[in-house]
Amino acid sequence: MPEDLTTALAALRPLLLDTGTLVRGLAAGRRRGAEPAFARAELRPVDLKAGRRLQVVTTDGRTPATHNHAPGPDAESAVDALLAEPFGNWHVETTDQVVQLRVTKKGEAQVHTSRTSRRDVEPSSSPALRSHDRPKERLLDPADPLFGALGAEADKRRQVDAFLRLLAPVVGRAVARAREAGRPLHVVDLGCGNAYLTFAAHRWLAAHPDVAEVGVRTVGVDVRDDMVARNTRLATDLGMAGLSFVTGTIADARVEDDVDVVLALHACDTATDEALARAVRWAAPVVLAAPCCHHDVQRQVTAAQADGVLPPHPYTALTRHGILRERFADVLTDAVRADLLRLLGYRVDVVEFVDSRHTPRNALVRAERTGARPDDARRREYLDLVGAWHLEPALATMLADEVARALGDAA
After folding, report:
1. Shortest CA distance to 56 belongs to which of 86, 79, 73, 84?
2. In the β-sheet with 89-94, what is the strand arrangement from edge to edge?
3. Assigned domain for 143 exists
4. Strands 109-115 and 185-190, how do they pair?
5. What is the 3-state secondary structure (H, E, C) of 283-310?
6. How many whole angstroms separate alpha carbon 171 and alpha carbon 285?
7. Model pTM?
8. What is residue 62's predicted lDDT score, i.e. its pLDDT?
């Protein structure tokens, strides 16, 4: 039943200010006819050297800003200011309840309260944890000042841990190449954006026993000057030697050729193909790519279907409905990418990156270069797949010479 909005928001205030029980508060969306100052705001308690603080991370949809507020008037002022913003939704999670508030078109509040079932509350957000509820040990300490500087909330820290666990089993091949060449491990993140994972990967690698023998240089590439400047400033503030950022496109950014690890996380559409193409040309031993926005193959499938060319029998049901066609095109895109990488001398896994509740774009292509020549079965699999669906894969176009040689070798 709708409630008075002012009263409902006032009930959220003590929950947001109690840093002993607050897990996180999230405000997003907008009310009818109004626009909040921020696209999103997140609040959570953090433990700093100066004591516990209420951290508020706001974003305009592109660049986050982080402020840590001392308990008392400072935190109260920050919470009151956010509650006064015309956000359309609030989600407040404490150690024992979850409160969800939605503002209706009439300006009333719809409030739903439930008991929390959360069992992995961060230590900084929980006054006490029973022994059997201890959080899973993370590869990178959740209390690392890195996360506070980046404004990385619990979900981001979980994503970081999931990513590092996918990197850990394959890093040895890259280290071996760097050691053989007598130089530091060279990591490049193409399209790094806010660079949560760039910072985390560099921090973890720098502390890795095998990597410590050779050292590590990490370069983040992004097309936006302001993002590069922001990331460079944070790297300096955190004292992260060997980590740098450059402005440029994924395809054209100037990067040293001796690259050992290539990261490309959530690069849109064919930007992922550009990253994979650079990795292949560098002969990078390790590649981790989390694709996003698979429009290119979807356009090709839709156009061929309109011309009556697709789908091949008996797969009409896969492309009859728009939502199924879109999801199938996503799968087809990554299957073709994996097949191409196998043709070009990589062992490939396509795995889940993070839980789908965090993002539907949660597949990750993990490839290790073996240099193995493709056999005829691999060649036929690839050619039959793209032939059946009348595809011209962007990655194959970008690596036309390399693909032609691989197909010729397998003939």
Report:
1. 79
2. 64-69, 51-59, 40-48, 22-28, 89-94, 97-103, 109-115
3. no
4. unpaired
5. CCCEEEEEEECCHHHHHHHHHHHHCCCC
6. 9
7. 0.67
8. 62
Please state, as a whole number, how many other Cβ atoms lie within 10 Å of the Cβ of residue 10.
Answer: 11
Answer positive or negative: Cα dihedral of 198, 203, 208, 214.
positive
The helix or strand, by DSSP H or E, that contains position 250, with its residue range, turns out to be: none
**Parent domain of 124:** 5-135
Number of domains present in the structure of the chain: 2
Are the C-beta atoms of residues 87 and 74 closer than 8 Å to each other? no
CA dist 274 and 383 (Å) reads 21
Q: How far apart are the first and last CA of the chain?
A: 69
Query: What is the rounded CA–CA span in Å between residue 12 and residue 79?
Result: 10
Helix (H) or strand (E) holding 362: none
- The pLDDT, as a whole number, for residue 90 is 94
State both tokens at 258: 């001796």
Is residue 239 one of the residues assigned to a domain? yes
Residues 209 and 68 in one domain: no
* Angle 190-271-275 from CA coordinates, rounded to 5°: 45
Residue 124 CB coordination number (10 Å) = 19
Element at 398 (helix H, strand E): helix 394-398
φ, ψ for residue 176, nearest 5 deg: -60, -40
Q: Within this chain, do residues 370 and 294 fall inside the same structural domain, yes or no?
A: yes
Mean pLDDT by 10 residues, the chain (411 residues): 88 94 90 90 88 89 81 95 94 91 91 68 40 58 82 82 92 92 96 92 92 93 94 91 95 90 89 95 95 88 89 89 91 95 96 63 89 93 95 96 86 44
Q: Please write down the long-range contacts of 332-336, taking CB distance under 8 Å and 24 or more positions apart.
A: 332/297, 332/301, 332/389, 332/391, 333/291, 333/294, 333/296, 333/297, 333/298, 334/291, 334/294, 334/363, 334/365, 335/385, 336/297, 336/382, 336/385, 336/386, 336/391, 336/393, 336/395, 336/396
What's the CA gap between 387 and 240, in Å, rounded? 48
Indicate if 353 and 238 belong to the same structural domain: yes
Q: Which residues contact 247 (CB under 8 A, 6 or more apart)?
A: 221, 222, 223, 224, 225, 228, 253
